[in-house]
Write a structure and sequence with these properties.
- With about 240 residues, this protein is α/β, with parallel strands linked by helices.
- The protein has one domain: TIM Barrel (Alpha-Beta Barrel), CATH 3.20.20.70.
- The protein is about 45% helix and about 15% strand.
- The protein has 12 helices and 8 strands.
- Strands 1-2-3-4-5-6-7-8 form an 8-stranded parallel β-barrel, surrounded by 7 helices.
- Helix 5 packs parallel to helix 6.
- The longest helix is centred in the middle third of the chain and has 17 residues.
- The radius of gyration is 17 Å and the shape is globular.
- The mean pLDDT is about 95.
- The structure holds cytidine-5'-monophosphate.
- Cytidine-5'-monophosphate binds next to strand 2, strand 8 and helix 11.
């Protein structure tokens, strides 16, 4: 069964997903409460493992939509079970590794749809992770013995995921325009590596501003430290929204 696509964000705040990295559950909820326009948060492995599934409900009780970024990669039955559980939690976006293969991706997608419908919850959008940007071309080829260049391997995995019914992907600023050309809307493209003009790139190698990323075809932006580490997170969030307005 096909995924239920997330519609194009109607307002700037709907396009921005704030990554709640490096904080405990109390700090995560405090930050969320400090951003009145906030619609989306990303819960990654660090926060989820520390806080447990209850953090998803707590954030939802604050009126937020949760992107559960746990990057599932396993055999088909386990991928299906994990996505079923994540959908029952009410997560609205869930990451899965495309390298798990077409059968596992299709099983994950079907399980997420079934579980959400059974629980009368919105059907989440599964997002394919292709190649982690921490890989460099040389070590990727040598350590994994994959001969195909990275720039071909990424679109290959995205196409594999789309063919399995996955309705979106996470992509770096390097990849967003070419993936958008291959996967028109309503395919969801979520892009991290976003830095508002004037903010430090930090450990991100290639960055786009919020407006550049949307112009390149991103449907949603993941923004972490430029907001969460700002002395005034509400002002930083508002500035990102203003840039997109
Ligand atoms: O703080 P910053 O804006 O760099 O946070 C970006 C978020 O997106 C982090 O949660 C990070 O793990 C994630 N991410 C990334 N680059 C990728 C994939 C995910 O920065 N290629």
């Amino acid at each position: 069964m096909l995924a239920e696509p997330i519609q194009a964000p109607p307002s700037p705040a709907d396009a921005i997903i704030v990554a709640l990295d490096g904080m405990d559950p109390e700090a995560a909820c405090r930050l969320a409460r400090a951003l009145p326009e906030l619609r989306w948060v990303k819960v990654g492995l660090e926060l989820f493992v520390a806080a447990g599934p209850g953090i998803v409900s707590r954030l939802q009780e604050l009126g937020l939509q949760v992107f559960l970024d746990l990057k599932f990669h396993d055999i088909p039955a386990t991928m299906a079970g994990a996505c079923r559980s994540a959908a029952r939690l009410g997560a609205r976006m869930i990451t899965v590794h495309a390298a798990a293969g077409g059968r596992a991706l299709a099983a994950a997608q079907a399980a997420a749809v079934d579980a959400a419908q059974e629980a009368d919850l919105p059907v989440p959008t599964l997002l394919a992770v292709t190649v982690l940007t921490s890989w460099e071309a040389d070590s990727f080829a040598a350590e994994l013995a994959i001969g195909e260049p990275l720039e071909h391997y990424v679109p290959r995995l995205a196409a594999l995921a789309a063919a399995a019914g996955i309705a979106g992907a996470v992509c770096s600023p390097h990849e967003v325009s070419s993936l958008r050309a291959a996967h028109p809307a309503p395919f969801t493209l979520v892009t991290p590596g976003i830095r508002p003009a004037g903010s430090a790139a930090g450990d991100q190698r290639r960055v786009l501003t919020p407006a550049q990323a949307i112009a390149a075809g991103a449907s949603h932006l993941v923004i972490g430290r430029p907001i969460t580490a700002s002395p005034d997170p509400a002002a930083a969030f508002a500035a990102c929204c203003a840039e997109l307005a």
